[in-house]
Amino acid sequence: ILVRVNLSFSQQDHQYTQYMYNTQVINPGYIGSKDALGLGLLYRAQWAGFDGAPQTGTFTFNSPVGELKRNALGLSIVSDKIGPSNETSFVIDYAYSLLLSERSKLSFGVKAGGNVFNIDYTKLDIYDGGDWQFVDNIENKLRPQIGMGLYYNTDRSYLGFSIPNLLNTKHYNTVNVNNANKEAIAVDRLHYFFIAGYVFHLSDEIKFKPATMVKMVSGSPLQVDISANFLFNDKLTLGGAYRWDAAASAMAGFQISNQFFIGMGYDFQTTEIQKYSKGSYEMF
Question: pLDDT tens, 128-147?
Answer without folding.
Answer: 777 777 777 888 888 899 99
